[in-house]
């Protein structure tokens, strides 16, 4: 059995973190790099990730996350925030980064830039915001897989009030919207959830071969 499958069987949505255990700076950088390397549509990465350690700030966020203890007990709280009203400016920034990274001119990939603008900027703003929000889930998946390899626990959270998190972090002024939360750290030995058997549909029910 591959290590990947073994790690997936090990991980679960941790309900109680050990507040005394902190992720090392080296492992945290590995997790950040895993997020950085995540796939995204066109490679645009239409989001920002806030890594929150400040206990006072996390205490403010906790009520907006239905009072869940993971918000304050985990080693770090990550807020995945999608860019709202994504458009030409962000695409131009990406093209300039591509040119710099690959040692080419922006003009040489103008056709690609124009293609992206045609496909993206013509969408209604609400549809674009939904699209950028979905992209955060791809980044979250990379975080969870990398963390499982390091035996670091992750609890992804949709159970929170985005508008309140937006207000606490001042996200609207930054053109951002809280899409996902994820707490990272180490499971508490008293968290009974870690001993539960995973409940998953059988393969013959989940997959359809055509």
Automatic annotation (TrEMBL):
<protein>
    <submittedName>
        <fullName>NAD(P)H-dependent oxidoreductase</fullName>
    </submittedName>
</protein>
<keyword id="KW-0288">FMN</keyword>
<feature type="domain" description="Nitroreductase">
    <location>
        <begin position="9"/>
        <end position="186"/>
    </location>
</feature>
<dbReference type="InterPro" id="IPR033878">
    <property type="entry name" value="NfsB-like"/>
</dbReference>
<comment type="similarity">
    <text>Belongs to the nitroreductase family.</text>
</comment>
<keyword id="KW-0521">NADP</keyword>
<dbReference type="InterPro" id="IPR000415">
    <property type="entry name" value="Nitroreductase-like"/>
</dbReference>
<dbReference type="Pfam" id="PF00881">
    <property type="entry name" value="Nitroreductase"/>
</dbReference>
<dbReference type="InterPro" id="IPR029479">
    <property type="entry name" value="Nitroreductase"/>
</dbReference>
<keyword id="KW-0285">Flavoprotein</keyword>
<dbReference type="GO" id="GO:0016491">
    <property type="term" value="F:oxidoreductase activity"/>
</dbReference>
<keyword id="KW-0560">Oxidoreductase</keyword>
